Amino acid sequence: MADYKIAPSILSADFARLGEEVENVLAAGADIVHFDVMDNHYVPNLTIGPMVCKALRKHGIEAPIDVHLMVKPVDRMIGDFIDAGATFITFHPEASEHIDRSLQMIRDGGCKAGLVFNPATPLHYLDHVMDRLDMILLMSVNPGFGGQKFIPSTLDKLRQVRERIDASGLDIRLEVDGGVGVGNIAEIARAGADTFVAGSAIFNTDDYRATIDAMRSELAK
Ligand code: DX5
Ligand code: ZN
């Protein structure tokens, strides 16, 4: 079985109790904390920035933090999130003027680097940078909000990216984000994903452990 990772998106957590929410979801078996950064410019919503990431580290959160930058411009935030203790930093290629430089900045700062593809963003952005990537994130909704419906054409795109990763022989995680839940996680895994972001599907349930366990048993099928 692939090395599957579950990455709850804290976008759907209770922000008034964020430290506790993150502790609870990790205690319930989550692997990675997915941290959505929205700027009301690249996407039509506004969320949290590097100070909150730093505060989670100060609070004692040691799990990998997967910072999904939905911002334009990109580079200034890369530096700030490196300093704030991010583990992964991913950004949308069309939001960066210099994709290669942004990826290089992330790795130079000791973080893992990734590109994010919106449902209609073409995969050609991968062409010259595969060896600079630790993660490829396919959006299965248009970015900006939690609780949207999974866009089915993502499955075909996942299969294409899985082929490219396998052909490259590189160690690159394939993450999917948006509308992922117990009901579709197995199908998404079969299409090639190994890392699953889920916001509302986890945080809108009362028992995080039961939900994460249900996802893992779907993945084991
Ligand atoms: C959407 C964000 C997602 C979002 C997923 O722009 O990038 O991470 O929180 O939420 P769900 O799992 O509820 O679709
Ligand atoms: Zn996200």
Automatic annotation (TrEMBL):
GO molecular function: D-ribulose-phosphate 3-epimerase activity; metal ion binding
A Pfam family assignment: Ribul_P_3_epim
GO biological process: pentose catabolic process; pentose-phosphate shunt
Catalyzed chemical reaction(s): D-ribulose 5-phosphate = D-xylulose 5-phosphate
Pathway(s) of this molecule: Carbohydrate degradation
Keywords noted in UniProt: Carbohydrate metabolism, Cobalt, Isomerase, Manganese, Metal-binding, Zinc
Cofactor dependence: Co(2+); Fe(2+); Mn(2+); Zn(2+)
Family membership: Belongs to the ribulose-phosphate 3-epimerase family.
Record HAMAP family: RPE (MF_02227)
Name of the featured protein: Ribulose-phosphate 3-epimerase
Native species: Marinobacterium nitratireducens
